[in-house]
Design goal:
This protein is of the alpha/beta class. It is 31% helix and 17% strand.
Amino acid sequence: MIRATICVGGTPSQRARYSESNRFGGRSLYFLPKLDLREKQALEDKLQGAEIKYKYFHGEEETKRYILVSIDDSAGVFLTALTNLGINLVDAFVSSSTKQSSKVARNHSSWYNDFTPSEEAYLSIKQIAEAQEADIILLSSPNLGAYSKIGEVKTSSVVIRSLTQYLSLKEKGREFKGNSHQVWEYAYARSILEPKYHMFEGKRVAVSLATEVNQILRCRPKELNSSGFTAQNRERFFWTNFSIKQVQPSPLVILDILETMDFEADTPSWIDKSWGTNTTTTRRNLIKRPHSKASALTPAMIRGQTTIFCKNKEGGLHRYSITELETIQGLPKGYTAGVSLTQRTVLLGTVSTLPVIEHIFKELPCHAKLEL
């Protein structure tokens, strides 16, 4: 079997020194002057069947290497943020809840391996990281705000109270309500992988729910709002060992992201129904105007939730286009293309906000904007 090492970056003298030191190592050396995903893929295709290792250099110093493990549907955003920052990612392992989010993530990164969470899978990933001398980044961003309890079991009143109980129920094939169990899976992954960096993102939830997550993850959350980066007001909790720096709200508002100024006077009847009980507030009252920040996008907006609209002073409604929704999340236009409009909309209400994740990831050593 051919044994090859692909070297990325570095100065001519650095590459020459590495070649000289590996003359008798029995490995064929291939050099890429920069991190170019197309060239990397072409070289891997050429070396199909070979045992390939990677060596990364940055200037006169060897760069840090990372492996991403993502247990949710925000993997595409995580991968894009790492790429935009020039982080040297040597592999990525993703467990998505939907095929659609997996497809979108694949469209934006060649570093992608689907995996089913299990002890065997986590141990295998840990071994790969050790062999690659790479630090693990463990990430998860489930929609915690949709649940009143952590780890509810379907068709049962059972609620998970310990990691041992969760693993027992999982082994028996019990199903859980949505992603309500994800905090337990994340805690389990963290216990095996022992990641260098870890982050669990959740909606700004009630104190009782946050306290429960604090106890499971043994840390308190840090807050960050996407209003500091985009035209959206989206408060989030991050249970993490990243140092999160607070930022002031950016001047961006809804008006800045609108592609058209089309507002419909003929609006659905439910818009003017009361919001909740014992209140005169209508759903129309909750809809934001163009000179304010947009409400946080949610998966339910596909059903006509108020967050998918903005309104003018006459009360006319503008329904955000799919590319306007992408811009609100700080994503490039067309980012979610490749799946249906419904699936794109749900995904945009689920995933993390790209500039927020980039802001957090800037703490990673050796982040530098590479010429891709």
